[in-house]
Amino acid sequence: MALKNYHLFIGGYDRGLMAPDANHFEIKLNTGNDFYRIAVNVRSQDGSMLMTFVDENFQHELCDRLLIEFPANGVYNINDPAKRKQFGLDFLRRNMVGDFNKMVILPNNAPGLDNDLEEKLTALLNKSKADANARIFAFGEKWPSTNNKDKYFPEIKDQGLHDIHLNQGNPTGSFDKDNGVFQDGGILIHFPGLNRWAVILLAFQTEFNTLNPATLHTDDITGHRIVGDTGTGGEPSGETDVDGDVVIVGALVNPKGNEAGKEKVILMNTTDEDISLAGWQLVDRTRKEFLIENAEIHAAGTLEILIPASSNFVLGNKGGTISLLNVQGIKTSGVQYTKEQAKNEGRVIHF
């Protein structure tokens, strides 16, 4: 069914606290016109720890588009499918993490320094508060507002945002109704004086197909987990082909002169066997596909995929994403590049 009220809240950090149940870190956000609570999961209801990706120099093609579309702080409804596809977070389809093994399992709080989610969140939020021009971009589900006092920040009304985490891949059960695409939760922070972004992305361990290695494969329409063979009792095993046998290592997105028919994507076979790519696909930022036909990539070799002028698949010069899907439609590799990386004509971007 997916989330019903997907929103983007933009504002400045006022203060934060750990909820008494220690399952959420609560953020008081000032949008300039009002205050809202951002409820960030830092532990699962069953007590298990979350998968965490923190990057204090986050570079992604989405960042430039957010600044252009949302120049002012406020509350923005991005729930309709077109806005989700254009601006919604999607860890998988926007290649926001790249290799999901970069996500580490962290406790909500623990003895020691800089080793838990409370400390990671507090450190970044305090940095944003020290910069008067820093802006927090919080993505998630807006809950129905009431005129009651907020239960954690009683000086403000009961209004805010939750589901600040991956919202796809949930197994069959209590939370699979929340699965969807381009509706993941997360926190991005823009520091304009440094021309830099930071990001915190969170996910429940149960949302992944496998944890060692970490893999995530979901349906492009429903966001439900793509599973392999059923196990005992007919239950899905959750296992799929391991990512990374064939990977994207480079792309020429801005050829010199007339670009038509000159753009290309460079693949590498990381295995010791030849692999047929017949029926594989490249997918761009807008989910346009390019079907690879009658191609084979040799063991430990590379292959250039030239994109014909007639293709709808586009490597835009203002930033984009490239995903490689195998013949089963499962992503084996994904990259993204920024407008800054694409500005030099004739140069290959390496990943």
UniProtKB/TrEMBL annotation:
Transmembrane segments: none annotated. Coiled coil: none annotated. Residues 243-338 form the LTD domain. InterPro entries: DUF2278 (IPR019268), Lamin_tail_dom (IPR001322), Lamin_tail_dom_sf (IPR036415). It comes from the Bacteria. It holds the Pfam family LTD. This is DUF2278 family protein.
